[in-house]
Design brief:
Layout lengths: L1 H20 L8 E2 L2 E2 L15 E11 L25 H16 L20 E12 L4
Parallel strand pairs: 3-4
Antiparallel strand pairs: 1-2
Length: about 140
């Protein structure tokens, strides 16, 4: 579980960091460089381009011969010797899960019976790379 949480945080950290660095961040209905003339122009629609976010997955492994080796998914198995599911498979599943979550946009219900439109999210994760690191000090 600790490993999965670590991988998820590594996976999401570029997105979370990017959120605070966007130049169009709004505060009190203003962009960082001035008032918003028409806030409706910032709502995604069918003309809004899809944003692709590349994600790298890193697996931290113990060195061969140490207690608890490998401690995580590897290039050839799941860390428990199962050859049918590798770190590459887990990384692909993680990206698929992230994309399935990004495709959902639940209707707001504050205040009750709110009829605010729920635009489609225009973000898609792409698996850019899977890396395996062997380090006994982690």
């Amino acid at each position: 579980m600790k490993t999965e949480a670590t991988i998820l945080m590594l996976f999401l950290s570029p997105l979370l960091q990017g959120q605070s660095e966007l130049p169009c961040a709004m505060s009190n209905s203003e962009k960082t460089w001035g008032p918003i003339a028409n806030a409706a122009e910032y709502i995604p629609d069918e003309n809004t381009p899809l944003v692709y976010v590349r994600g790298n997955i890193h697996f931290m492994l113990l060195e061969e011969g140490t207690q608890g080796y490998p401690g995580n998914f590897t290039e050839t198995h799941d860390g428990l010797g199962n050859l049918g599911f590798t770190g590459y498979d887990f990384a692909k599943k993680l990206i698929e899960f992230a994309n399935s979550q990004m495709s959902q946009n639940v209707q707001m219900n504050l205040p009750p019976n709110n009829m605010t439109a729920k635009p489609k999210k225009k973000v898609c994760w792409i698996l850019n790379g899977v890396y395996f690191h062997r380090d006994n000090d982690s």
